[in-house]
Amino acid sequence: MDILSCKPIHSRVAFDGFVTDGGSVSFLGFSPNGRWLVSVSGLNTRVWETAEGTFVGEIKGVAHAFIPNGDLLCGAWSGCGHRIEVVTCPGGEVVTSFEEEASNAYSLVVSPDGQTIAAGGYQQVHLWDANSGAKLRSFPTHSRVTTDLAFTPDSRKLVTRNFGNMAVWSLAGELVTSLRSVEIGAPNDRGQRLAVSPQGLIAANGGRMVELRTLSGKRPALWKFEHYVSSLAFNPAGTILAVGTQKGDVHLVDMASHEVALTLTGPRWVVSALAWHRDGSLAAGWRDNIDLWSDRALGQLTPKAAPRADDGDVSRRLERIRTKIELRGVHLQPPLSMKEVEEFEATHCVVLPLGYRRFITEIGNGGKGPPAYDWAALGENGDLPQHLDVPFPLTENSVWEGEEEPLRTELSSAAWSGGYLYLGTEGCGMNWVLIVTGLSRGQIWDLCWAGACSVNPRRDFLSWYEYWLDGGRDVQNAYDEDVYADDI
């Protein structure tokens, strides 16, 4: 993970000294035209001018969402007994008043087409016509409070969440998909815990984990972060997922590679709200501040890690490897099902690198391969510690043989702590591993009694396996390094 500090173009105190309820920024939202940024703290909604970051005015009540087709806000306003209303921004004039109060509404969202408003309450979801305010229907959902809501991109379905349960519903109240989600269960758990991308992918967080789901319930990705996750937001294109934590970091996840591409650092407070501007700028709400990073700044900050292959490139490489396996008559164990892989990932709180993941589900899982004693199937650990979710600490080769104590123990303990998947052994305590966390994620390394070394040149799983099919032996490259010269 590449940790980078990006200075925001605007940083504003959300309270300006006259709001004394002391709450965090619980909601951020940009108007459809991008001119206004709205922040909510306690029972007060504030409006900011985006270009200059200047405070414009205040609306008494809690904003929840912009109506997509204009400068209109939907929320529960204190001036009307917490009734749901649509008001103008920034003036706060009432445009539409709804039929009932929202005192028991725990979440409130507007459909992407601007036609429907949904509120989640105790055991039910309520729907209204956004234009007239007329009640459309209510239908039962979870056994307890519906804590989070989100519409699908086509505005025809609604995703609901209740602690560890998540479901997809038609607007008629018919259950489409029901699935078990990661438990919320984080300290001070509040904020945006559910987000749906324009492509229809669902992101939900619980504790230190964030999972990605399709509308049919499949889970293509699962991430575990160092600190508790407090907020989620997809950018307008759905290509980046912003993940805010309770220690003040904002991780930007590239949805093509499912890798953390950047980490923005701010005040060491909870990132309680996130919002994307239509131009790609990102706003983050902290305890009593709002920071805004420009799209230009985010575009210029690129990770130091090597470029990763996209899914199309992986497909071409897999097909080439499959042909070579057939020509050489290499025997492999049968591939795993995607369900088996997802269960393994969920158990170990890790997402396997894309090339390896597809190899073991499409070609084979263990058998003949680069290690002298064959390639290990998923789950075989060779008596090595299997702490996959612990970040692998190394980016450069590390040798502890010949070092004095306590340095020797410190170096070896760090390398062996975890973040790698066992692939096989050369014997004599030399083990091939695939790094699954940290800055070296996706690379093949050798861990042994003398030190830890990446293959030279560095390879991912597919390159490592194909090099062996072509007659290469990476073990020679690894131990030709000067750092091992005294040990061979």
Describe this structure in words.
This protein folds into two domains: 3-300, 7 Propeller (Methylamine Dehydrogenase, Chain H), CATH 2.130.10.10; 311-487, SMI1/KNR4-like. Helix 2 packs parallel to helix 6 (461-469). The chain is mostly beta strands and 488 residues long. The longest helix is centred in the middle third of the chain and has 18 residues, at 311-328. A five-stranded mixed beta sheet has the order 1-26-25-24-23, with no helix packed on it. It has a five-stranded antiparallel beta sheet with strand order 30-34-33-32-31. A four-stranded antiparallel beta sheet has the order 2-29-28-27.
Give the helix/strand layout:
Blueprint: E1 3-4, E2 10-13, E3 25-30, E4 36-41, E5 44-49, E6 54-60, E7 62-67, E8 72-77, E9 83-88, E10 94-101, E11 107-110, E12 116-120, E13 122-129, E14 135-145, E15 148-151, E16 157-162, E17 165-170, E18 175-180, E19 194-196, E20 202-206, E21 209-213, E22 221-224, E23 229-234, E24 240-245, E25 249-254, E26 259-265, E27 273-276, E28 282-285, E29 289-293, H1 295-300, H2 311-328, H3 338-348, H4 354-362, E30 398-399, H5 407-416, E31 420-427, E32 430-435, E33 444-447, E34 451-454, H6 461-469, H7 474-479
Parallel strand pairs: 1-26
Antiparallel strand pairs: 2-29, 3-4, 4-5, 5-6, 7-8, 8-9, 9-10, 11-12, 12-13, 13-14, 15-16, 16-17, 17-18, 19-20, 20-21, 21-22, 23-24, 24-25, 25-26, 27-28, 28-29, 30-34, 31-32, 32-33, 33-34
Helix pairs in contact: 2-6
